[in-house]
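Suppose you are handed a protein chain with no further information: no name, no annotation, nothing but its sequence. What can you learn? This example shows the usual starting point.
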Amino acid sequence: MATVKAKVLDATGKSTGDKTLPAEIFGGDINVPLMHQVVTAQLAAARSGTASTKTRSEVRGGGAKPWRQKGTGRARHGSTRSPIWVGGGVVFGPHPRDYTQRLPKKMRKAALRSALADKAQAGQVFILDSFSETKTKAAAQALKGAGIDGKVLLVLDPADESSRTIDRAFRNLGKAAFSLVGSLSTYDVLVADSIVFTSSAFDTFTSKGGDAE
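A reasonable first move is to predict its three-dimensional structure. Written in structure tokens, the prediction is:
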């Protein structure tokens, strides 16, 4: 496993040192097929599955025959709710369903570690320490001072009181997204350009062995 480090940032975004990341969480191999499978399952589980159409037996009306069978010169029809009529039923249309795919916990955990290893080895994992500002301007300056561009994912610890302050400061930044340390997912990590842990979130995450999902 590779040895990787993360920059520790102060409230202004200045680096105050490096912290060695646990190799078993951030230094493993990058398994692209596994990450793809897990992300596909996560996106599928997020689908509401509420799309619904009515078949010809469910559409209201159409009980009477539109016109007599013979003698009118028109094609024969038995119901105005046939699928070939406007306002009729739908053939093979969508119905409510559950798109959830079963994934073993070991697969989800391994995929998350693989995604974190990818970001860590690219130098895109940071640890934010002692941030107490509530202004969005201060948050933007902190990211700029750290040289963090693009979409950033902030990982917060709900048990830490400073998480509310950080949320208030960063939430109005269009490129900022949030995740609680216990809800971190492979998809969230992969779509972000940089991952920023608060000190408390990092300690909690590593103490659990990277078991977030």
